[in-house]
Amino acid sequence: MKKWWIACAALVCVLSAQGQAVRQTYLYAVKGADSLYLDRYEAVPAVSGARPCMIFVFGGGFVDGTRDDARYVPFFEYMAAKGITVVSIDYRLGLREVIASGDFSAGHVVGAFMRTVAMATEDLYDATAYVLANAERWRVDPACIVACGSSAGAVTVLHGELGLCNRIEAAARLPESFDYAGVISFAGAVFYPGEELRWNRRPAPIQLFHGDADANVPYGAVREQGMGFFGSEYIAAQLTALGAPHYFYSATDADHRMAVDPMEENRYEIDAFLQKLVFGREPLIVDTRVSRIGAPVLPKDFTIADYIQSNFR
Predict the structure, then answer these.
(1) Above 70 in pLDDT, residue 12?
(2) Using CA atoms, how far apart are residues 93 and 253, in angstroms rounded to an integer?
(3) Residue 280, CB half-sphere, CA atoms under 13 Å: how many?
(4) Residue 36, CA atoms < 13 Å, CB-side half-sphere
């Protein structure tokens, strides 16, 4: 087994002293009026040999957000210090049209959300194809590409893996044999037609972080207009039934801060997921439930109206 996990004190010291990894920016696609860029972060000094890659998708409700948000950069630097090339990408923010229209009815939001997720997934695939095309030059191992996202970005990476499993049309942007080595979702969910979510094959190992009082993205399952919005608790139960390796980290009475906080507070759990389930390919199901003593009890019933109120008002 290849030893991907690089624990080099000298390397960490160099990064800490300089305060950041080396970052380079590339234009990876042009979609109409949108020029889509990605930032590639590498350790200083560069790690020898082919290395894993983490493709990161930022959050912001498909309305705003940036690939170089200051909240994410320390996480990128941390991963780079571990010997992982980090690629943080732009993608099209389709729900801006909902804001522009002023129509926040459930029917309009659901339709726009379907189109928006499809666009973001296509952009993730195009960015992945760009990484694959440059893998030799960037010294990236094409078999060790992890997709990671926060909030809307987490929705996107989960849809990216689901689309590969179900071989949707947009998946043709990638080689038929390609799959992500793993997926990390910070407060994500899947938007899917019907009463239940279906996987045509077992997915790559998935790590799911979520608070059970999240009012922005559902923790469980919500159904509206013939569509299901399936959150981390629902997905984890499905993965268990499928016998698919995964790591579910559930925080009681935690809200949407789980879209960002784990990048700082749960690095140990992320390291363990990558080392054991992804790079080590250990057939594990890990279910961690955390409750903070004395934390206030928060409402836990999520509806589409909650989603609209939290993201567009």
Answers:
(1) no
(2) 29
(3) 13
(4) 23
Single-letter amino acid code for the residue at 290: V
**Cβ-proximal residues to 139 (8 Å cutoff; 6+ apart), any chain:** 46, 49, 50, 51, 85
Peptide bond into 203 cis (omega under 30): no
161, containing H or E segment? helix 152-165
Are the beta carbons of 100 and 44 closer than 8 angstroms?
A: no
- Three-state SS string over 133-146 comes to HCHHHHCEEEEEEE
Write the pLDDT tens digit of every residue in 42-70.
988 766 788 999 999 999 999 999 999 99
CB 249 within 8 A of CB 266: yes
Which range (70-74, 116-120, 167-171, 300-304) has the least confidence? Answer: 300-304
What pLDDT score does 303 carry?
73
Residue type, 80: A
Q: Select from 310, 285, 282, 288 the least CA-distant residue to 213.
A: 310
What is the enclosing helix (H) or strand (E) of 36?
strand 34-42
- Spell out the residues 6+ positions from residue 61 whose beta carbon is closer than 8 angstroms to its own: 95, 151, 152, 216, 311, 312
Read off the DSSP letter of residue 170. Answer: G
Per-residue DSSP letter, 274: I
Average pLDDT, the chain: 89
Structure tokens given for 214: 């999240």
Residues 233 and 302: their CA atoms lie apart, in Å, by 13
Backbone angles phi, psi at 61, to 5 degrees: 70, 20
139 residue type, one letter: R
